[in-house]
Design a protein that fits this description.
1 helix, 174 residues, mainly beta
Length: 174
């Protein structure tokens, strides 16, 4: 019984950590164009309906969220819960692409006035919505920081105020 009591917390810790490999530095920047290419990102992990891709250079943090959803997708940095996360949430409606930056608070979020510089692309095709973005690394990774906490989510509907159909907290070792 003691072995089971020790193994379960260890398995839970591994599940929350996201992937086994750390998010190290790379010289090759990803291209936020709405298409995730093979080998474009140095870290990837699939969760139920979302695949998260990450990479970073010494100056930029790159992320891609691929969701099996025709609606909005989002990624938040700074917390593996909504509270305190700096959230990027976007959708494609026809030929219109929209992305907003929000701050999570409890079970809600509000649009930010003090946004982070951002390069991004969104694409929806064949029931999959992809958001790729690039932000300054120092906006979310401090010198000496050992882990990057994030939240990923997706939902039905092309609005930023539609409840998520899937969400997941992710912690990645740096």
């Amino acid at each position: 019984m003691k072995k089971v009591a020790l193994i379960i917390p260890m398995l839970l810790a591994l599940a929350v950590a996201g992937g086994a490999q750390p998010l190290g530095l790379t010289d090759q920047p990803a291209v936020p164009d709405g298409v995730v290419e093979e080998g474009e990102y140095s870290w990837s992990e699939s969760f139920q309906t979302i695949t998260l891709h990450l990479s970073r250079t010494d100056t930029r943090l790159f992320a891609a969220v691929e969701a099996k959803a025709e609606g909005w997708v989002g990624i938040g940095f700074g917390s593996n819960r909504m509270t305190g996360a700096h959230i990027f949430i976007g959708f494609v409606r026809g030929s219109r692409v929209e992305i907003q930056q929000h701050r999570g608070s409890g079970h809600s979020h509000r649009e930010l006035q003090d946004t982070v510089e951002l390069d991004y692309a969104l694409r929806e095709q064949g029931g999959v919505t992809v958001m790729e973005l690039s932000v300054p690394v120092e906006a979310f990774i401090a010198p000496g920081q050992e882990r990057l906490e994030m939240i990923i989510a997706c939902g039905k509907g092309d609005r930023t105020r539609v409840y998520h159909s899937y969400r997941r907290g992710v912690i990645v070792d740096l």
